[in-house]
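haha ok so turns out i had the wrong file open the whole time. this is the CORRECT one, sorry everyone. sequence first:
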Amino acid sequence: MKNKFLLLLIALFFGGTSLTFAQNKDEKAIIELMKKQEAAWSKGDLEGFMQGYWQSDSLTYYSGARITKGWQTTLDNYKKGYPNQDYTGTLKFIIDQITPINEGAYYVMGQYHLTRKAGNANGTFMIIFKKINGVWKIVADSSC
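then structure:
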């Protein structure tokens, strides 16, 4: 009986999805935002995906050797690079680390996995979230 209980505790501790290990309400809110982004992207809804980003000209996106500034420019680049469902495919985030910077900001490090007809794509990211007007938004994103 003790062994079954111990196995249950281990399963509960290590079980679940990669986006469910939040420790507090802010982390939970950030993870929920990322789940919404996964769902929007996987439906080919790039505008919905971008709702997680700060809608500002100060939004910064780093990818490869390119730096993009601004929400609209970032959306336009996504539309060019992912023109249809064959390219957007299905998105899955794996969070490796979520760390507070201060009371109103976190950084999240992890992996993304795109399963798609145009060929799968995988990489890593570091995203900076900031609480703006009571809502968590991505203010900087570095993906490769």
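The mean pLDDT is 88.
again sry for the mixup
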